[in-house]
């Protein structure tokens, strides 16, 4: 699965990239702005998205575009999960920072399973 890393803090982006790659996924990015993320969206299956990007608090707006325009599954990885509120329709998960490798791998596994079910025409909500 192709995982886009959307994170403006370089050390966190590199950590997410390492976790995804060690779990057997290809990574796209990391990218730190909405414009970069939208440019790479067609090459991505799922995106790990922070709410606060280097071009402002645009993570939620980005998620909506990734889901609606590109069919990219979104998993939020944020230091302020309360800002997501009840979630964003179509987003698969919200992971609070600091996170563990296991929490990221688990969310990616669920996203991969949902994509497989979607290919079979029987997608279920997570």
Describe this structure in words.
The chain is α/β, with parallel strands linked by helices and 126 residues long. 40% of the residues lie in helices and 21% in strands. It has four helices and five strands, in the order βαβαβαββα. A five-stranded parallel β-sheet has the order 2-1-3-4-5, sandwiched between helices. The longest helix is centred in the C-terminal third of the chain and has 19 residues, at 101-119.
Outline type: globular
- Total beta strands: 5
The largest sheet, given as strand count, sense and whether it forms a barrel, is:
5 strands, parallel
The first-to-last residue Cα distance is 18 Å
- Spans with pLDDT under 50 lasting ≥5 residues? 122-126
Mean pLDDT: 90
Please specify the SSE layout and strand pairing:
Layout: E1 2-6, H1 10-22, E2 26-31, H2 34-40, E3 46-49, H3 59-70, E4 73-78, E5 91-96, H4 101-119
List keywords for this structure.
126 residues; alpha/beta; five-stranded parallel sheet; 4 helices; 40% helix; disordered C terminus
Write a brief structural summary.
By secondary structure, this protein is α/β, with parallel strands linked by helices.
């Amino acid at each position: 699965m192709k995982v886009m890393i959307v994170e403006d803090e370089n050390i966190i982006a590199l950590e997410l990239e390492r976790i995804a790659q060690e779990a057997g996924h290809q990574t796209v990015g990391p990218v730190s702005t909405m414009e970069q993320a939208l440019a790479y969206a067609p090459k991505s299956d799922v995106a790990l998205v922070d709410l606060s990007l280097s071009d402002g608090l645009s993570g939620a707006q980005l998620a909506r575009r990734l889901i609606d325009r590109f069919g990219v599954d979104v998993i939020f990885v944020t230091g302020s999960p309360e800002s997501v509120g009840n979630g964003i329709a179509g987003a698969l998960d919200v992971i609070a920072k600091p996170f563990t490798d296991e929490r990221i791998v688990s969310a990616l596994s669920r996203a991969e399973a949902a994509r497989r079910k979607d290919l079979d025409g029987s997608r279920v909500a997570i």
